[in-house]
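Troubleshooting log. The previous structure file for this entry was overwritten by mistake, so regenerating from the original sequence record. Sequence copied from the archived sheet and checked twice against the printout by T.R.
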Amino acid sequence: QVQLVESGGGLVQPGGSLRLSCAASKLTLDYYAIGWFRQAPGKELEALSCIASYDSSTYYTDSVKGRFTISIDNQRNMVYLQMNGLEPEDTAVYYCATDSRPMTIRRLCTDGFLHADSWGQGTQVTVSS
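Regenerated output below.
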């Protein structure tokens, strides 16, 4: 079973930045898609960005395009989300997730994440002055 552990969340002022990390272990695929997702209080789970392990190609949703940057370190099995220009609306629990079945980054970041079988425990991000 794939294990994912997020870290790096915290309290930040509007306009600030945070870098989230996701440590992956027991990966079952040589090449996989993995992404970042979030859930704000009272709102549905939302996809943010996904990345492919074999070529680092990326997919961003409109809500974070231009503000957030996803990256991967295949040597360390780490995935990062650099978040700049944070706004109070970005307050949420942030998760990384992947699936044991082969999946494109577009699929994972559109509807595939709804059925993804591997999730971390989440890390809280609070944007407030």
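Residues 73 and 79 are 6 Å apart (CA to CA). Archived copy saved in two places this time.
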